[in-house]
Amino acid sequence: MRLTKLIYSTLFFITAGALTLQAQETKTDKKDENKAVTEEIEVVRPYKPVLAEAVKLRRSPDLNTVKTYKAKFNYSLTDRKLGLNSDINKLQAQQVAEERAAELLNNYVKAGFGAPTTALLEGYVNIGRDEALQAGAFFRHFGQSGKLEGQDANQQQLSVFGRSIGETFTLSGRINYQRNGINFYGFNPSQPEFNLHPERQTLNFIEAEGEIVNKFTDDPDAFSYAAKINGYIWNDKYEAKEKSVVINGYVNKRISSFNLGLASSVELGNTQDQLTDVGNNIFKLNPYIKLQANGVKINAGINFVQEFGDFSSSRIFPAVTADFTLIPDYLQIFGELKGDVNRNSMKAFTDENPFLNANINIKNSIEKFSFSGGIKGTGGPGFGYKARIYHKKIADMPLFVNNFENPTRFDVIYDFGNMKQTGLEGEISIQVSNSLKWTGKLNFDDYQPAEESNSWFKPQMRLSSDLLFNITDKIAFNASVAIQDASKAKIYTAAPASPYLVPDPANETVVEVKGFVDLGAGASYKINNKFSAFARVNNLLGTKYSRFLYYPTIGGSVFGGLSYSF
Question: Is there a domain that residue 413 lies in?
Answer without folding.
Answer: yes
